Structures are given as C-alpha cells and as structure tokens.
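Inputs:
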Amino acid sequence: MVQMSIAEALRQAIREEMRRDERVFCIGEDIGVKGGFGGAFTVTQGLSEEFGHERILDTPISETAIAGVAIGAAMAGMRPIADVQYGDFLFCMMDQLANQAAKMRYMSGEQVSVPLVMRAPVGATSRGAQHAQSLEAFFTHIPGLKVVAPATAYDAKGLLKSAVRDENPVIVFEHKLLYGSKGARAERGALSPVGEVPEEEYLVPIGKGIVRREGKDVTIVAKLLTLYRALAAAEKLAAEGIEAEVIDPRTLVPLDKELILASVRKTGRLVIVEEDNLTGGWAAEIAAIVAEEAFDYLDAPIKRVSAPDVPPPFAPILEREYVPDEGKIIRAVRALF
Amino acid sequence: MPAKDDQAFTLSTLPPELDAERLKGMYRTMFLIRRFEERVNELYMEGRIPSTLHLYIGQEAVATGVCAALNQDDCVFSTHRPHGHALAKGVAPRAIMAELFAKATGCCKAKGGSMHVGDVRVGMYPAIAIVGANVPIAAGVALAFKMQKSRRVAVSFFGDGAANEGAWHEGLNIASIWKLPVIFVCENNLYAASTPFSLAFNIENVADRAPGYGIPGVVVDGNDVLAVYEVTRAAVERARRGDGPTLIECKTYRQCGHSRSDPRTYRSREEEAAWRERDPIPNFRKWLLAQAVCSPRDLDELEKGVEQTIAEAIAFAESSPDPQPADLYTDVFKE
C-alpha cells in the first residue's frame, strides 16, 4: 500500500493505462505544456515528459473541439482521456457530449461506440458562478453516458482505470477540494484526503457503491466532498445516539440502486446530500427511486440536503451558506426523529 | 453562379486514372443518387416513408466527385442531408431504403432514420444531423489515423450554414495546427434552410476563411463532377503527405426545398430554372457522349440497371420486418 492524494491517484491511473495500452492518450487545455500547469489541478503533471506531446495533447481553448476530436478519435479506435479545466466548461461542449457521444451508438444501430473518458472538476471553491458548479445531474439525465464520482484515492484510481477500459463514454467528476493539488495550484480550504492505494494493479468496477459507515437508524447517501461532510455529521449524531449509515454511490450511472434500497429497508430513513442545486437534481432522482421502490419501509419523509436554487456565489460567507455542510446534514437527520 | 464550361475537361486533360470504366461509374453514382431521391420523394408523398426528408437532388456531383477520390477505408462524415454521401461512399441502397422505411434491416436498425444513415464498413459513419457538429469529430477521426500511422483520410461534408457554427471554427483550427489528414468539403447550395448566403456571410466565398486558419481554400464548380474530383484528389494527396487539411467549397444548388415541408417561396423560379440548366447529371451525360467515352446505348443500359437496383431496394425494404418494441431498450450501452 502507498499513501497518495486523489490527484496523484488519478495521475497514476493515467500513467498505468497509457503504459498498458498505446491507444490511450490525453487531450485538454494546459495539460502538458513545458513549464505549464499540468492540468488545472495538476493531475497530468509530468506525463508529457514520459509520454511526449504526441500522447499528451495540449489544445487551444476550444472545448467543443476537445470533445469532438476526442469523440472522433474514440470512434476510430483510440482511447482518449479528455479533460476540462472546470466542469462548468462542459456546457461549452454540451452538443458534443449530449447529442454526439451519448447517442452515436444508439442512432447508428450499434455500429459505432465511443470509448471516451471526460474528466471534469466540480465544486464550490470561492470562484463564483462560472467556476464552481456541480453538474452531475445534467449528465445522469442523458441516456448513453456513464457517470462516476470518486471520493477517495483508491476509488479515483480504480474507477478512472475502469473508465478508460469501458466501451462507452464515461464522465468522471472530481471535486476540487479533494484533489490534494500542491504548490501554486493548491486549493485554500481543501480537504485533500490522502488514502491507501495498492501497489499492484486493481480496478474499481463501474456501477458499484459502497457503505462507508454502518448504522441502523438513518441512511445518508452522499458523494464527492459531501461524503466527508456526511461522515463528520454521522460522528456527531452517534454522540446523540443516532447511528447513521453512510453510502457512497461512487458511480451515478449505472446506479447501484440495490445498495441504497437495502440500506433504507434497514434504517427506514433517508437523507441525500449533494452540492448541486435542489430542483431537478440528482438527490431528487434518488428520492424518487426510494419512494417508488421502498415506500413501505420509510418511517419518515425523505430529506434532501442540496445547494439552494441560486448560482454559486463568490463571497466566502455566502458560499458557506450555499454548500451543504455538517450542520445542515445534522439538522436534516434530527428532523426525521 | 460559376460560368459554364470555364474548366471543361477533355479526355486528354483528365487525370490518367479516370478511365472509361471509372467515368461511367461516376455517372452511375450520380444517376443512382438522383433516381433514389426521386423515388424516395414519391414514396414519401404516398405515405410509405415516415418522418421528413432532406433531398440531395442537384448536388450529386459533389458527393460523387469527392468519394471517387477516396479509398474505401477513408471515412466520410455527413449531415442531415446524407443519402447522396451514403450512396457515393458505397452504402448498399437497400440498407438505406430499409432505414428510411423504418425497418429492422435498415443500416442503423431503424434507430437512425434518414438523418443518420451510414455503414462504417464502407467508411460512412452514421450521419450527424446537428449542423457543424461533424467538423471536430472528423478531425478526431483524422487524429486517430495520424496516431495509428495509417495513410487514411477523413472527409467532413457540410453545407454553407455550418460555416457559421462555433464547432466549425474550432474544428478547422485544431485540424490545421495539428496538420490532420482531413478534408473539409463545403457544399454551398446558397441557402441555409431559407436563409440566403448573403444574409449570413459578409464574404463572397466560404473558402475565403481558409487563410485565417492557415490552410488552403479552393472554390470549385460543385456541379462539375470532374472538377470536384480533381480538387479533392489534390487535397487527399496533401492530407496523405501529412501536410494537413484543405477547405474545398463546392458551389452548387439544392434543386428541392430544404425539407419536405418547404414550398421554396424565398427564391425565384427563374433562379431555379437557371440552375437546372447547369444540372450536373445531363451535362455529364452529354460530356461522356461528346468525348465518346461510351455510347448512348451503354448509358441507357446503365440507367436501366440503376432503376432495377432501386426497385429491388424498395422491395427489400417493404418486405423487411419492423423493429420489435423490445429493441427500444438495446444498443444504448456496449457491454
């Protein structure tokens, strides 16, 4: 076992996949320029020295081209790992992701598939409305895309490697406060969890969630940064005599529905936490699934702890009001008893 | 409108590989596209084909001239108006027809329809019906060819309207800076749906934009199949050499409306009549006979064969099974 940050785990995953398979390459902005950033959050740092600029492709600021070129290359037998500097920029390439990558296999009658990986940093980090959104729900809504959201170094490496080997487009959401980026690219207020990662080869299967903390009284479903907020809340709640079970879905599409349903059948209560806006969000979908399939097991209403329906603000004091935190989760849980 | 006969070829000025068989083959492809589209239009009017149609009538010389300059393993990307490109690249007429009839035997298993026909086995990717969107994707396929050290090239077909989409500009630029083996073929048919070229461009030619991306731009008579072939051949050679993309603008005319519901009230009947004078098919027929490439009887037989092919395609489509409701749920993901 080795201790590493999520940025290091992602970098190691890319390195191993590029060594294993010459079809794998990286494409994005500021990812391999000599003396440059190594990606907005340092994930691709040093890779162009090992693999050269023929496989670590720096693009102009052209998000539509990044997506379109990666899609075309994937259709013609390559395995691109594309990235955007901020998840918010996915909106610039939305046609390519939603109309092209997601639908190519279906509308071609399975002639063509698009084994594309698109990495995107999300999360509010006092950058204001256009560099802070959590966009997962948009992409879980589009049939044809797989969506993963790793919260630990172990999962980041294992899920990214699975994504590269998947035959379908996979969007990988990464949280800015979890990377553990260092130097000039370090994030103020970051959580930067360091985790154990095996030295030997392993994969984390796409579509499998995990119970992060066992409990009998309430189920809390949380991902990315909010997973850590939920775990902290669970510790405080335990002191009050409420044992929360915390579930990290890890993959959003396809969802490990059974893991969540089994937990709710045991606890009878459900709180879903996410940093995305409330309306039409991912939490709403989880709530709907549980209401449809485990209603008889519920002892209390389902609660969502989401960002309110406002854009991500700039002022740190407003951002603290915006993001789900430990206190909001604790209050939501208490209200169910 | 380009002047008539300004670049007329004679047998002695033709590229040497264009022997009588290949010239007849080009005529056959154009005639096949024309008659295929005319028959499809009739079937649509009779209510035997659902959805809408974007017909390629009038532009046959572009798809034919470009695809004649490609190898089968070169790839083309098309648009919402793809039947001509598909036929020219070699997709089986019956597979396209069955797709239009929404039958399970269609080239896309009835999951694509008119706007997404294709067959990757002959280098025709499923057509992409979002205007301009195929430009960066074709560049991506070309990037793969380059990384795989293959000599294959990719072609992106698009209309004049696409040249005002952001994806077009991003795609041309990235293809240029990376010298990708891709050819951008603009079919300037003068109207983006009903909007005339002059309302959407403050330049005379789409190809005038090429120098802004550091690539060659060529304007060619898109109703002259031999002229289209010749400029495409040069662009393909350039791409295979590793010198990067070319923007070819083919000046042509869509003889039909934009789609089935278009009464063409935004343009004059006189303009349409003038362009019909320049119809690529009878003109090429005349040329073949004038140059004694073949006899009228040869062409009559060839045309009869095309009618037979189309009749068989229709019979195949009509006798094919519908998709099953359960097919709705398959092909979203590859296992």
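Chain B has eleven helices and seven strands. Flag for discussion at group meeting.
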